[in-house]
Amino acid sequence: MRDETDKSIVFHLLKDGRISQKRLAKLIGITESSLSYRINNLKEEGIIKGFSLFVNPNLLNSHYAFLAFPNTKSFDSENVFMKFTCLEEFNVYGVQAKREEFDQLISSLFDELGEPIMTYIPQQNVRELRPYELRLIKALREDPRASPGELARRMGASVRFVANTLNSMLSKGDVRVIPQVDLSRLKALILAIFSKGEFNLMDPCRVLKVSSDEGVVDICFVHDLKLADGLVKQVKKSDISSKVMIVTNFQVKSAF
Fold it and tell me: What is the spatial distance between Cα 15 and Cα 61, in angstroms, rounded to a whole number?
């Protein structure tokens, strides 16, 4: 059985898939060599199955949205870049399509899955990738956790230039590195929490937040059922109408 340290490693990687070994070791309170040993074990045992590179659909000349639907049906399509499958009641989808096809995609979702519990269509900022950004993304696809030095070597550019470009893209949400995790083998839980407002009590465990005028969906990582039960009770106390679902599987991909 994996211990609390292993679960903390996965939690921080879910928050920031490109966090450095040095920073992660310091956050958890172990040596870098111990951290490397643990991460290798998590990979060998199939708990961490790899890392995916998410590219903001706006950089691919596409619009995107997040929607939560009752999970009486499932929707699978090349237009789905993110999906959280929940044990009961609803699934959360991230979908993307070219600008001229976006409205039709949303209509198709409504026809297939019914009325959504939540719809969040962020302000779109479609733009063309700059040539050096495209080269960086291609290098990241080969190894999403490669160091700026290694990325610079592959691109034939300076380390400083690559580091600055990467940090800018990460801070703007243009790209994100996300681990693919076998939650059942880790013996940890991810909760999808739908509420009418934002609560600071989710901050210590939140790995993703999607908000709209209709409400907020928080994706939170908790180490065990006891902690999950405590969080659920606090959420219900703050918002009696909130819904908390156990995520059984999550998938993240990029159309790039």
Answer: 26
